[in-house]
TrEMBL record:
This is Membrane-anchored ubiquitin-fold protein. InterPro entries: Ubiquitin-like_domsf (IPR029071), UBL3-like (IPR040015), UBL3-like_ubiquitin_dom (IPR039540). Residues 14-84 form the UBL3-like ubiquitin domain. Pfam families: Rad60-SLD_2 (PF13881). Gene3D superfamilies: Phosphatidylinositol 3-kinase Catalytic Subunit, Chain A, domain 1. Transmembrane segments: none annotated.
């Protein structure tokens, strides 16, 4: 994860959309999301995981919010309420 943190993992060095923290990643196995305090070995099930077999997992990377979007959300001028009665 150190390499990932430095954006040098899997060619993310040239891009600015790499995950910033581990919390931006979700690992899914058997339809269940792996919690942060558990290891991959903890989520194995004797029903579908064969010893010595292949385990299929999915990794979902959350897109970090863009700085422009964050600025718009925090701008007090953007929070307006309008009501029109005709």
């Amino acid at each position: 994860m150190t390499k990932w943190k430095n954006n040098a993992f899997y060619g993310f060095a040239e891009k600015n959309n790499a995950p910033r923290t581990v919390k931006d990643l979700k690992i899914i196995s058997g339809g269940k999301i792996l919690e942060n305090n558990k290891t991959v070995g903890d989520c194995r099930s004797p029903l579908y995981d064969v010893p010595g077999g292949v385990t299929t997992m999915h990794v979902v990377v959350s897109q970090p919010p863009q700085e422009k979007e964050m600025k718009l959300k925090s701008d007090p001028k953007q929070q307006k309420c309008v009501c029109v009665i005709l």
